[in-house]
């Protein structure tokens, strides 16, 4: 069976639930046993709650999904049999590099090493690793259980098959993957978001509109359109293309 493994913070727990919903066996790894116990309890409660509300993802029951998740505090045992490893530690370059350095020494040539980072470039994270061809960033949008987008960002030396396999896996678990052809500061989601935020500050700062009304422009205007179609498709559909 496919094993996938994670770290057990907020994003790690959310990823674990997404993969379990897709029917995959998941191993949660962390250095603290108590943290893992808390994570399991939290996941169990969330799954039961969502099942009750009728919003549980996937074809399996909450109980069946929960049974797919196990925990582990031994890194070597955790990677045993894994085909895909998703790192979900805090946004700290040194910490992430240390973890990928450790993984690099114990993984085989088939496993994909993936990071959840939202802002650290693959070239900063993976350069110099033996298994750099198998390394990739899969940046989820918080919370990944309800927001399907995943930005897939390769290292300059990432093998195309690593990108393809990651893309196919994300599709299989019901996420909406997008491929970046090369790395760029901020990736794509945040670059678009920063452009909107900086204009929002300007409009409010210059006294054009109140903060409350500015937020309404997005929530009751632009955002409603963008929930269905993107800016390029909008332009294409408008006024004879």
Main sheet strand line-up: 3-2-1-4-5-6-7-8
- Write down the oligomeric state: single chain
- Regarding CATH, which class of the largest domain? Alpha Beta
In CATH terms, what is the architecture of the largest domain? 3-Layer(aba) Sandwich
If you average the pLDDT, what whole number results? Answer: 95
Q: Hey, roughly how much beta strand do the residues contain? A: 15-25%
Task: Report the span from N to C terminus.
Answer: 49 Å
Largest sheet: 8 strands, mixed
Gross geometry: globular
Instruction: Give the count of structural domains.
Output: 2
Class from secondary-structure proportions: alpha/beta
**Helix/strand order, N-terminal first:** EHEHHEHEHEHEEHEHHH
Tally of DSSP β-strands: 8
- The Cα radius of gyration reads 20 Å
CATH topology of the largest domain: Rossmann fold
Briefly, what is this?
It is built from ten helices and eight strands. 48% of the residues lie in helices and 17% in strands.
Summarize the helices and strands and which ones pair or pack.
Blueprint (H helix, E strand, L loop, with lengths): L2 E5 L2 H12 L3 E5 L3 H21 L8 H6 L1 E4 L2 H5 L2 E6 L5 H14 L5 E4 L6 H5 L8 E6 L8 E6 L5 H13 L3 E4 L9 H17 L5 H16 L4 H7 L4
Parallel strand pairs: 1-2, 1-4, 2-3, 4-5, 5-6, 7-8
Antiparallel strand pairs: 6-7
Q: How would you describe this structure in keywords?
A:
single chain, 241 residues, alpha/beta, Rossmann fold, N-(1-d-carboxylethyl)-l-norvaline Dehydrogenase, domain 2, 2 domains, eight-stranded mixed beta sheet, 10 helices, 17% strand, globular
Word description of this protein:
The chain is of the alpha/beta class. It has 2 domains: 3-179, Rossmann fold, CATH 3.40.50; 188-238, Orthogonal Bundle (N-(1-d-carboxylethyl)-l-norvaline Dehydrogenase, domain 2), CATH 1.10.1040. It has 10 helices and 8 strands. The chain has helices at 10-21, 33-53, 62-67, 75-79, 93-106, 122-126, 160-172, 189-205, 211-226, 231-237; strands at 3-7, 25-29, 69-72, 82-87, 112-115, 135-140, 149-154, 176-179. Strand 6 and strand 7 (149-154) form a beta hairpin. The longest helix is centred in the N-terminal third of the chain and has 21 residues, at 33-53. It is globular, with a radius of gyration of 20 Å. The N and C termini lie far apart (49 Å).
